[in-house]
Amino acid sequence: MVSGLQKKTVSIIGSQMDMGAVRKGVDMGPLAIRHAGLIRMIRDIGYQVKDCGDILPMVATSEGNPRMRYEKEINEANERLFHRVLEIHEDQEFPVILGGDHSIAAGSVSAAAQHFGKIGLLWIDAHGDFNDDRITPTGNIHGMPLSAVCGCGPDSLVSFTEARVDPHNVAVIGAREMDPEEIKN
Which of 62, 126, 131, 165 is the most buried (most CB within 10 A)? Predict the structure, then answer.
């Protein structure tokens, strides 16, 4: 229960994205997390909750560039996520972003960097997600968002803002597998 503090609103927004990787199904993450009782659990500890719904990506007609598969659709969805999360920050609410495809970090993390300026970032993942279109072994954008938000990866993934996270302010936790070129990047 929140005590002695102003009751803060937690705003939940989902991104039903699964184009960043080959494996499909992670787009169902926001629904599954809500179904598991997230909103009730947040309310139970004393916060107000606003469910802002989900962002749905455009329907893809082709993979496009094999070095950055579904770039157009992912960028369009991330730009909408960026603006929505930025609005949540500006309303002084706490954003909780639900997803499963790591590519959505290009929108959500960039919004925090835009709003707060200099931020630190804990990247908790089994992979570094520090590839770019030159070194990617797969062309999967879900392996590129951290490099993009740090200004070391494809600028096209964060073209909707100039805000970047200083790579020196990033801690990668839990990485067990990184591509050889990704480590050099």
Answer: 131
Domain of residue 169, CATH code: 3.40.800.10
Is the pTM value of this prediction over 0.85? yes
Residue 1 is assigned to a structural domain of this protein:
no
Residue 134 forms part of a structural domain: yes
Structure-block tokens of residue 81: 């996520």
Domain carrying residue 160:
9-184
d(CA 34, CA 41): 10
Of 15, 26, 169, give the one whose Cα is nearest residue 96: 15
Q: Read off the pLDDT of residues 72-119 as tens digits, 9 standing for 90 and up.
A: 999 999 999 999 999 999 999 999 999 999 999 999 999 999 999 999
155 in a structural domain: yes
Q: How many domains would you assign to the chain? A: 1
On whether residue 35 sits in a domain, the answer given is yes
